[in-house]
Structure formats: C-alpha cells, structure tokens
Amino acid sequence: MHNDRILRFNIARTFQKNRRDSPALFARGHAGSFFLPKRVYLLFAILLFPSWVAAQSKYDLVLKGGEVVDPRSGTRAVRDIGVRDHKIAAIEKDISVENANKVISVRGLLVTPGLIDIHTHNYAGTGRKGAYDGDSSVYPDDFTFRSCVTTVVDAGSSGWRNFSDFKDRVIDRSKTRVLAFLNIVGSGMEGDPVEQNTQDMDSPAAAAMANQYPNIIVGFKTAHFEGPEWTAVDHALEAGKLTGLPVMVDFGRFRPERPYEELVGSRLRPGDISTHMYLDFIHMLDASGKVLPYLFEAKKRGVIFDVGHGGGSFVFNQAVPAVHQGFLPDSISTDLHVGSMNAGMKDMLNVMSKFLNFGMSVQDVVLRSTWNPAKEIKHEDLGHISVGDSADISVIRIEKGKFGFVDSLGGRLEGRQKLVCELTVRNGLVVWDLNGIARGNWQKRTAFVPHPEWDGTLPLKR
C-alpha cells in the first residue's frame, strides 16, 4: 500500500505538471484538485513508466544453457535458470536475455543444487591447539564455495556447553549456510580426556540446546569414544529420542565388547547415520571379497551410511569392491578439517570424483551430495532446484584426462574424469567464479561498478 501511494503521488505530480503545460487536456477537479480513480492511475503508470514496469519483471541473474541435474525432480536437461531477489524465479528452456541484469553462459557445464556436506569441522578461532573446536577446524567460507558447497553441517565440534560460542564465532558470521550436529559431550571435541568424559554426556541438556536452535541443530554426534561400553552411543540416542532428531556415529575405537555389527544391526534407528563407512576397521568383506550381508540388512532397515572421508577414514580396498557390489553411500561427505584437506581427501568435489571413477553415474553422485543429505538432516527445503527456493546453485565442469586420487592408506587410484567447480551461487549471489565467466573483457572496464543484485565476489565499496 505504501509503495502504491508513492506511485500514485508521483503520477499525480507528473499529471499536474502536464496540466499546467497543456491545460486543454485536463479538467479541473473540486477546489482545484486533481483526482483519478486508482485503476486509471495504474493504467497511466504502465503507459508513462514502462521502464518501472519492465524493472519489476527482470531477473537479477540468468544462468543460460547449462545441463541441469536435479535428482529430486529427476531432471537432467538443458535449461535456463532465472534468479530474482535471491530466489529461483524460473526454470525454462529459454529465458530472454533482455529480461536479465546479468546473463552467464554455462553451456557445456552441469548445473546442480548447491552441494551439501554433512560432515565438516568448522569451530575455528578458539585457539585450542590440535582440537576440532580449535586449530584443526577451518572457517567454512575459506573452503566451501571453491568446491561448490553452499551448506555444511559441523559434525560435533561443539557440545551443549560451547555451542553458543560456536554460533557467535562462526555460524552467524558465515556466508555459507552452517548447520550442526551437537556433540553429546558438553564440551565438544576438545580431545582427550574431555571426549572420554561420560559424566559430561548429558542427553537432556543436549536436547534442550537443540530445541533452542531448531533451525540450526540437526542432530547429535558421538565420536572418538574409546571405552568398552555403549555409554556414548546410548546418550546420543537418548538425546535423539527426546527431540526426534537423528544421531551421527563416528565409532571411535573398535572394541569386541561393542561390535560394529551390533551398532548398525540393532542399536541405530532408521534415519541414524554411521559415518566413515569405508573405514578399514569395519568388518566389510568376507575372505572372498564379498560385502557381508549384515551391511545390506542394516541399509534395508533404514540406517544411513555416510562417507565421512576424513584424513584416515577412507580406503580403496573397502570402497571399490563395495561400490561395485552395490553397497553405495547414502551421502557423500568430506570430514573437512586441516588434516584431511591437505591429504587424500582435499575437498568435496575430489571425493565425489572418486565415486565417479568407481563407475557411479553423475546423477547418483549428485544425488548423494544434494538431495539425500538434505533429507538426512530433515532440511528438505535444500538440495534441489525449484522455483521459489533460495538460489543455492553449483556449476560444475567434468574434465577428462589423467588424474590421481589418494586414499587414507596412501594408495593411489588413477581416474579419467574429475569434477571442477566453475561457479557457485549462494543465496542468489555469485560467490565463486573460477574462470571469470561472469565478467567482461578487462579492456572495456574503465570504472569500478558494483552489482549487489548478483555479485558476491567484489566489494560494494573500494
């Protein structure tokens, strides 16, 4: 209503001026006033202000000619994507370039939902030496966008005692969407002996913190526990039952008193997550190299198996035969931290590329990096390309050639294709542009021109 009144006032002011210049065209109203019905004002607005009307129909950004791969809808087709006001406004075969403030040609590239990495460590900046709530964690914006990731889930770096600090220090300051699994240990991942302190595993306190931040905390995590008892898993499951949220388990030290077969076979609920699924300590293959039946049975009853590559949790001699026999990950994740990103893991697209070279299809790899993880963390507003959704979009190039991939034992696998992040759009803004495909020729640039409606890589001020 306010904008409408302003528009009508501006139209009336224009009419008053025109009436003075051409009095024969206008009749004087009561007491010298000038009135027109609302419908007439709007009609004249269209006639007199075509640029204003056109501006309302423009897209802030159009990604043109890319191959859209959206697993939720089953789409794999060349489409244009129009973005307006930070949201996806159109998905069409052809969007007119005249209707866009910025058009980026993405022909020959894959256009996918923004990638979701559900196992990362981002509680950086505390100064704690060697801890996952300290020096081992990384600030998300430094490493997400360059690998086409727009959403990360911190996997238990903080607990109910220090989550508020993590939220203030990292989550609230990040352009990346940062969600969290809350550690069942109140002090989070400070390392030993803190992570072994069963007295600090407080299920009601963890549940209360999750209920306080339902849009950020997506579940609970137990990790690195070394004791022979099920205490850590039981406390995490209790917090999950109190809130209806899933539990992610990094099993820590494998002990005969609490076998992994029992964890996935009976203790975890449908929807709970076993991460580090291709860890060499897991009893996965029989003497003839066949995947053991208990793993398929656990999948059937709804246990989620997540990659969680990390620096020491992914070996080819488990992953390759398992994938070839159909024991596929439900979600692909990195376990991003300082150690893993400088070792065989590197980044999300490097992990995805490994599965591509194992023989999985592009659609299956994208599914496990977008829509599947979105469902696992109960954020089904993410992980797909749909009109009305927040514009989180990845533009990926498939490079062909000779590439090497390394696992946690230092083994090398040679591959023929590799995924490379060409462009990342987060919340409607270009936040990563590897080869400058959003830019014009430098010889035609004579002044700094900010574009706040689509550009998230150049500053608004200099």
Describe this structure in words.
- The relative contact order is 0.13.
- Helix 7 (260-267) packs parallel to helix 8.
- The protein has 462 residues and is an alpha/beta fold.
- It contains 13 helices and 15 strands.
- The strands form two sheets. Strands 1, 2, 3, 4, 5, 13, 14 and 15 form an eight-stranded mixed sheet that branches.
- The chain folds into two domains: 2-56, no CATH class; 113-421, Metal-dependent hydrolases (TIM Barrel, Alpha-Beta Barrel), CATH 3.20.20.
- It has helices at residues 2-21, 38-48, 50-57, 163-169, 203-212, 231-243, 260-267, 293-300, 316-324, 338-341, 348-358, 362-367, 371-376; strands at residues 61-70, 75-84, 87-92, 103-105, 110-113, 115-120, 149-159, 177-183, 217-222, 247-249, 273-274, 304-305, 393-406, 412-426, 429-433.
- Strand 2 (75-84) and strand 3 (87-92) form a beta hairpin.
- The chain is globular and about 70 Å long.
- The two termini are 37 Å apart.
Rounded radius of gyration (Å) = 27 Å
Shape: globular
- CATH topology of the largest domain, which one? TIM Barrel
Uncertain runs are: 1-55
Strand content: 15-25%
The CATH superfamily title of the largest domain: Metal-dependent hydrolases
Please provide the ordered H/E string of secondary-structure elements: HHHEEEEEEEHEHEHEHEHEHHHHHEEE
Our count of helices gives: 13
By oligomeric state, this entry counts as single chain
Write a compact overview of the structure shown.
It contains 13 helices and 15 strands. It is an alpha/beta fold.
